[in-house]
Amino acid sequence: MRTRPLKVALLGCGVVGSEVARIMTTHADDLAARIGAPVELAGVAVRRPSKVREGIDPALITTDATALVKRGDIDVVIEVIGGIEPARTLITTAFEHGASVVSANKALLAEDGATLYAAAEQHGRDLYFEAAVAGAIPLIRPLRESLAGDKVNRVLGIVNGTTNFILDKMDSSGAGYSEALDEATALGYAEADPTADVEGFDAAAKAAILAGIAFHTRVRLDDVYREGLTEVTAADMASARRMGCTVKLLAICERAADGQSVTARVHPAMIPLSHPLASVREAYNAVFVEAEAAGQLMFYGPGAGGSPTASAVLGDLVAVCRNKLAEATGPGESAYTQLPVSPMGDVVTRYHISLDVADKPGVLAQVATVFAEHGVSIDTVRQQGKDGEASLVVVTHRAPDAALSGTVEALRKLDTVRGVASIMRVEGE
Amino acid sequence: MRTRPLKVALLGCGVVGSEVARIMTTHADDLAARIGAPVELAGVAVRRPSKVREGIDPALITTDATALVKRGDIDVVIEVIGGIEPARTLITTAFEHGASVVSANKALLAEDGATLYAAAEQHGRDLYFEAAVAGAIPLIRPLRESLAGDKVNRVLGIVNGTTNFILDKMDSSGAGYSEALDEATALGYAEADPTADVEGFDAAAKAAILAGIAFHTRVRLDDVYREGLTEVTAADMASARRMGCTVKLLAICERAADGQSVTARVHPAMIPLSHPLASVREAYNAVFVEAEAAGQLMFYGPGAGGSPTASAVLGDLVAVCRNKLAEATGPGESAYTQLPVSPMGDVVTRYHISLDVADKPGVLAQVATVFAEHGVSIDTVRQQGKDGEASLVVVTHRAPDAALSGTVEALRKLDTVRGVASIMRVEGE
Fold first, then answer.
1. DSSP state of B398
2. Pair type for strands B127-128 and B76-79
3. Do residues A218 and A232 both lie within one domain?
4. How far is the C-alpha of B25 from the C-alpha of A392, rounded, in Å?
5. CB-based contact B293 A311, cutoff 8 Å
6. Which of A106, A73, A112, A71 is nearest to A89 (CA)?
7. How far away is chain B from the Cα of A152, in angstroms, using its nearest Cα?
8. pLDDT tens, position by position, B258-308
9. Could you give the ipTM of this predicted complex?
10. How many domains does chain B contain in total?
11. Same structural domain for residues A144 and A259?
12. What is its EC number (chains A, B) (predicted)?
């Protein structure tokens, strides 16, 4: 074993960074044995240097992240600060100055992964980011490597723990969205500003990363259709239950039937209770991968948190260090298929639509005609009358999303339709 | 991209081998793009050369596997013949003659993995074997690489599809073992001679491989405690149901509480219906991995079959070919902890014991005394009387297996105990 240590710079020392530093110290011998050389924490860039950081030598702390990545003796930079800048410039600067990079930065990878990949390749460095998607769950490596000889057709999963906690709470207790969000915040599952989670931005970034890797093409955050869960009501949840379903915020990446394009989307959807994703509780994550030869695989585990994310970061650290010692690099960007990303209207899915309608003869016929005119076939209709008003719950067969949303628009214009109470897609069947 | 192809020799052209050859042809462009060079099937060694093999150039077929691996121009040997010899000699010969190896041979890896690893290292070649455990489910790579920065404490799973099919059938239909085995055979889930599956040899080989990788030590097939499922009765299954459990054949690899040894075992066990493994149906596989930082991860998918196994083989082929082009090798054997494997008696577990006893006062006190004398604490007792006879069902708290089996031995000697109707371990709580 080489005795000269590999030098690691840590950018960011919050929940994840401090756990990475702790494990690097407490498990130093194991890491050295697995890598073939010791690893040494050579510097830690933070915003608040005065904060006491247990177990970290104060001499390693700096506020000058740029100077740290430019030192020239750093073998690996671990970036856990998040956000677009200064993270992007720090990572590309690290590549220029001889370091490989392990990152947990989903936002940056989804926004501008191509720039990072290109810089890594130009300088012959590694860019690893298992921690960017679904915390400790191995997903990037299985998709990039284990399934490299297969053809992935679909990735479908729960990739945001906060929203799964909220929906699980709504489902199990009958609570409304606000109430469930309050509980998630109180328990530390939701941040003070929950926008990134509840509006689906976090899940959309992960969907972009997964779709790009799964289909060997470039998918950016802007390519991902996105709906959050703030509009999901207790009534939707109850309606899902009546159908033998529950509601989950799903990230869905699909290859089109003709194989010539891909789609990526994040939205709430009803899935049958018999589907394995329906039983993913609390803040857990789970992802299905469907591949031509492998069939259907599922990966399940804690999708966030300091320790699980640190586990993913350290797994990448070991790989990157081994590559350094072998003077090799791992897999880089694979975007050779150049498959375009189609808009949401092209996605083929099913709708569950609740309508408030006038309780008089002929309404159902009128509504059914609108579906037929848009080429949307109806699977089931449930009609309930109450005091001159009635509700119609329609579940469609599979149709392009554009046809489905066109149907809803036309329904809204019918005199006999008083309102569209809810629209939700149905998946996992 | 390099235009000169990498040459692949295929040893074995059965269910898996023919599927590997088929995908290599139909997906040649994708494989080339992902590897960075085309791959070419340069020879196929078979036992029956006269058999028609669709899509394979007859000129590539040979019965002389030794000559094929000795050719000197082969970059990668794919070994899917199984068994100890001639597979072992062919693999080590391949390493000597410049090839890296992708193998699906669980029996050989569990029996003598160390010899293969040593030969690979001596000649600077790769040895990859994702397909040896749980078919298409990425497990070896996540354990060897994704969790390389973590400390795995436990691996627990269903790793044999045939036995899971049989137990699932017994559970859902109330069928006995023989009847369920007949159905598995009729549907092609069990082989004509089902010994390797039903006696647990196949699962034990996988447990040895998983334990070795998870704990960075050497674990051989002989180190794995093994009980098959041929003794599991419809009555056991019914008894499990009454406890809110089902019966699964589990492979369990554990680090001892003091961290100084490991255990590996395969046996039928009761697990609660609420445990995710309880809902693994038919011939599917699923494996839980518990690691210090990552927490609890689960991997699920088809555990066998031509296509899923071929997916795993081809993922390894891509990795090994990339390494060849980079003149590097992937991770080799990691057995630095040298943790010993403890015998079954040291495993801490729980027992579910059904006793036929005389229906008279004092029997329960007598039985309870035997448990106490062996230091085994009782969790629950259920007593049922019928016509002068009675049955006692005892579920214990956790205790060393030696103490539990000592208790059972002593119970058999009691005059008031007419017989021990069944003993089963209880896991997953």
1. S
2. unpaired
3. yes
4. 52
5. yes
6. A112
7. 11
8. 999 999 999 999 999 988 899 899 999 999 999 999 999 999 999 889 999
9. 0.94
10. 3
11. yes
12. 1.1.1.3
